[in-house]
Write a structure and sequence with these properties.
Elements (H helix, E strand, L loop, with lengths): L2 H20 L5 H18 L2 H6 L1
Helix pairs in contact: 1-2
């Protein structure tokens, strides 16, 4: 999978959480936790070969 698509797969949920937080659809503690955890999950699930390739 190209890196741009992998980045979009993680950026879209992060953006949705941020918008939900702004619109008060998601409680602030949950939203802040998700904004912290989503990038960590992205890094944990990125194959090492993809990191070396760039």
């Amino acid at each position: 999978m190209p890196p741009i698509f992998r980045a979009l797969l993680w950026a879209i949920p992060s953006f949705a959480v941020a918008l939900g937080w702004i619109a008060d659809l998601i409680p602030a503690p949950l939203a802040s936790t998700l904004i912290l955890v989503l990038p960590i999950a992205m890094l944990a699930t990125t194959p090492r070969a993809a990191c070396r390739k760039a």
